[in-house]
Amino acid sequence: MAKKPLILVTNDDGINAPGLRTLIEVLNTIGDIVVVAPDSPQSGMGHAITLDSTLYVERVIVDNEKQEEYSCSGTPADCVKLGIREVLERKPDLCVSGINHGSNSSINVIYSGTMSAAIEAGIEGIPAIGFSLLNYKWNADFSAAKRYVKTISEMVLKHGLPNGIVLNVNIPDISEKNIKGIKICRQAKANWVEEFDKRKNPQGKDYYWLTGKFVNLDNGEDTDEWALENGYVSVVPVQFDLTAHHYIQNLNSWNLNG
Amino acid sequence: MAKKPLILVTNDDGINAPGLRTLIEVLNTIGDIVVVAPDSPQSGMGHAITLDSTLYVERVIVDNEKQEEYSCSGTPADCVKLGIREVLERKPDLCVSGINHGSNSSINVIYSGTMSAAIEAGIEGIPAIGFSLLNYKWNADFSAAKRYVKTISEMVLKHGLPNGIVLNVNIPDISEKNIKGIKICRQAKANWVEEFDKRKNPQGKDYYWLTGKFVNLDNGEDTDEWALENGYVSVVPVQFDLTAHHYIQNLNSWNLNG
């Protein structure tokens, strides 16, 4: 019998999040899994890493202990770094992050702790996927996501991913029978228009809550936003070479040395 | 006389950092500047934003007050969001972040608070630049950087930048006379090999410090690492559409719906 793949599992909503529990349930059917996840919610952490502070990682028993689990005081990217170097005995065959409670489509990929964990694994040369469900609630229904987590994870194990690319998978918040399938997409050009909620604290000092409205200005039918709005699971190949290669020639024409 | 450009200035080392003070000194010669910077160091914060906590921003007087300055309790990305929506009276003509104490070349762009501030401004449609000096020390010598901050900032004001692109500028830690000029580059394929420093706290519990060794596996002479090692200031056009467009066709061949 072929050896089971070793899968590192993490997230950004914290080790007790229902989205992570769903991921564990599915991945237990296809590999040996080890969980290294933040001990508290880390949404919006982007690709933060812990440089000025100590990191703790400890074995925990969360559910039926089919899998090893470790709780980490750091960010999602820290969890992956620690998981690879200090927890796992060999390089994992796959790293899966999520299932995030809330969308990481389009520009959200930039702010996403879920995706930063996947990207960190990608930087380490490990095939990696981030899964997110378009429902921010703690008690969101993850059942429709299971089938897609399984299919896409198995496909990545089968095909591998080239160095420098990880997958960003978003799942619409509709019932399984209404999901039309999977679409390979590009990241839509969208952004948040912030609306700061300004208040006074009990001492009379102004403070703000960051809130905002999501604005999609991209009408392309090849985007993740289009796919999700139309009942598809979106899969975007994401790279961490941020170079805008097509603009290098233009910049050269500025004669910055002139 | 033409109206002076309005420049939003921020960083990730905090409002008192010498690198920021150098940036302010130079930018005061080319525009009207407003500073909104973190009240404490935020290195390695990546593109973190503050979702679960309150944000404070208050007017401070740091030096001779040629410029308005605001200290913010949030991350570099928060500073830009708050600066644009709550502090500035109009959309700035340019956003400049830095000068970072330490490199943000190659893969460091991913972890960089300095660059996340520039990218956040880019998302808002504002031409933006992040500057970094390859010296992590607080008392680093920023004098050689001044000329390049001025030249590149003026060029961006003159030419603008297309939507979706910001500049990542790194400056070698050598004297001005030894800098050979500016090179437009791509991000080198490099990464950190983590070496966790494991210790026991006074209560006997294990903890870690994240340390690591930077490894550049990219021999290209068109990379930022090559430019910096050879005495050039590196300028990389950075995009925040992370889609690996060239890989979409390949993923389609997986027949994920099949």
CATH topology of chain A: Stationary-phase Survival Protein Sure Homolog, Chain: A
Mean pLDDT of chain A: 93
Q: What portion of residues of chain A belong to β-strands?
A: 25-35%
Rg of chain A, nearest Å? 19 Å
DSSP helix count of chain A?
A: 7
Terminal-residue CA separation of chain A: 65 Å
**CATH architectural arrangement of chain A:** 3-Layer(aba) Sandwich
Pair with the biggest interface: A-B, 76 and 76 residues
The best one-word shape of chain A is: globular
CATH superfamily of chain A: Survival protein SurE-like phosphatase/nucleotidase
What is the helix fraction of residues of chain A, given as a range? Answer: 25-40%
Low-confidence blocks of residues of chain A: none
> What structural class results from the helix and strand content of chain A?
alpha/beta
**Counted beta strands of chain A:** 11
Biggest sheet of chain A, open or closed, and with what strands and sense?
9 strands, mixed
The run of helices and strands of chain A is EHEEEHEHHEHEEEEHEH
Query: How many domains of chain A, as an integer?
Result: 1
Oligomer class: homodimer
CATH class of chain A: Alpha Beta
